[in-house]
Amino acid sequence: ANCKETEADEEQFEDAFENIPVASQMDLKSALDECNIALSLFLNNKFSEALDLLRPWSKNSMYHALGYSTMHAMQAAMTFEQQDILAAIGTMKDALQTCQRFRKKNSVVESLSHLVSRQDSDQLTEEEMHAEMCYAECLLQKAALTLVQDENMINFIKGGIKIRTSYNIYRECQQIVQMTQDRVRTDAYCQFEGGVKLGIGAFNLMLSLLPLRILRLLEFIGFSGNRDLGLSMLREGASTHSLRAVLCALTLLMYQTYITVVLGVGEGNLQEAETLLQPYLEKYPSGSIILFYSARIKILRGNFEMAQEKFEECIAAQEEWRQIHHLCYWELMWSHSFQQQWLKAYRFADLLSKESRWSQAIYMFQKAAILSMLPEQDVQKTGEKVEELFRQVEGLKQRIAGKSIPTEKFAVRKARRYMSPNPVKLVLPLLEMMYVWNGFAILGKRADLTENMLVTIEKAEIELQNHPKPVEYQVDDESLVQLLKGLCLKHLGRLLQAELCFNQVIQSEKRIRYDHYLVPFTFYEMGLLYKQQGHNDKARVHFETAKNNYKDYSMESRLHFRIHAGLNSLKNSPTSTP
Fold first, then answer.
1. What is the pLDDT of residues 151-190, one digit of tens each?
2. For residue 306, what pLDDT is reported?
């Protein structure tokens, strides 16, 4: 038998939806079957029913424990809400205890030799093999949640020992697969193999994203990440019919549509994302998680109008997980911002600040920043006072694990200008925040909208020239405007003009008083500009300058992620010949 399930089996799961009795006993096969049903329920927006199916056995069956905690983890990853993240970490701890009970007492990995002997792998029962896998998977997800929770990785490094254990178990499991190729390929064995692909794939992909200075710390404790290996394992895993196929697909979608944009150079493989999503769109046409990614891909293609329809469809598809609505509101807010439909964008920022608990400080900043793009009479119609909103930002800042969220810190610092009795207005604060989220890489897909944005930026530039700010902020504000202008020009193909704008920022370095982040970020942008022209050596010099010559500025860890991605992209980039 091969590892592809038959269509008939899938049908059976679908039919089993309507009336699911609680099982009276649970072996490995029944557990895998029941988890498959739960997964289908989950993808059909029946979140509570999926959790209800898994909960009764979540303390006595490793797959129920894994499924139950994974759904909490997926909710946390979808919503980025701290509450969900902490709850998911809690269910992961319980799941780890359940899995531990099924592991071979002197577990493979705890033996001194880190290589599984042929004899060891033959002695492991199928259940013990799966227990190793489920245990490693829970540990990995716990690590991923920590990554989401804390962008500057301190937690990640603190948890290094746990992560190393997980990584080593996966490597052992991979060796078990290699040594047992001659085993009868039962469904349970194929499920095990699918788990290896998900684990080895996700681990390599995650580690390959990390800037070198962090990777050095991690490699010190036995890690290394290979992006191409990670992607190919996940692709293989996504193409099977195993329980983990959808997790492989969702990991790849998250990578191609978010991670490459926010922490990379903004070039996800959208063709791959669409291909991965297609079978799930056919099978779960109103599944909100599937619809959400479908809309996100349209955003990244610059098709904002159609994306907006899809997000509205996603919102209408279910009421149970409101957090998915909040994710849609966030995307809709930016989509309308790209089109300079400020009042519509404001409506979604306002909804977020009323309904979502993820980051009240950022939502408040967004509301104020969007309204500051509007003429005064339009702002009055909303009943809001821009200065008042900015003044509220600092009081809403939260601390997680004793640290602030970098984007919140940034918003708080920018909003402080409004604390003085005669505040000096921020210049284009919404476009500055758009840049922080790498939004210009998305806006740049649409020349018409980029051209409109350039007009808005040039108006602000003229305003600054005609009404100079107090000396304290003038150079900072001018430099920000030049960076934003350069980004638009770059995406419009006016590369020489873009370079002039970026150079203006770099030449102002000594006179910038507050926004010190502008210079290293501009060096990075200059690197991308040279890369686009095939001047890879110049690009590398600019990336390295941004990386090595600056520290202790806003969003530093985010820039280090982007520089790391930029340097990696040079390896596959053609060089122009003079």
1. 555 665 656 667 778 888 998 999 999 888 877 788 899 9
2. 98
CA angle 450, 451, 452 (to 5 degrees): 90
Count of other CB atoms within 10 angstroms of residue 537: 10
The pTM of the full predicted model, rounded to 2 decimals, is: 0.90
Please give the Cα distance from 463 to 428 (Å, whole number): 12
Where the chain has pLDDT below 50, the residues are 1, 5-8, 16-17, 110-115, 578
Residue 472: predicted pLDDT:
87
| Residue 203 and residue 233 in contact, taking contact as beta carbons nearer than 8 Å | no
Spatial contact of 317 and 281, defined as CB atoms under 8 Å apart: no
Q: Do 204 and 226 touch, CB atoms closer than 8 A?
A: yes
Q: What Cα–Cα distance (Å) separates residue 381 from each residue in 167, 353, 510? A: 56, 19, 42
Report the b/e string of 119-156 with b at 16+ CB within 10 A.
Answer: ebbeebeeebbbbbbbbbbbbbbbbbbbbebbbbbebb
**In this structure, what are the phi and psi dihedrals at residue 37, rounded to the nearest 5 degrees?**
-65, -45
pLDDT at position 534: 95
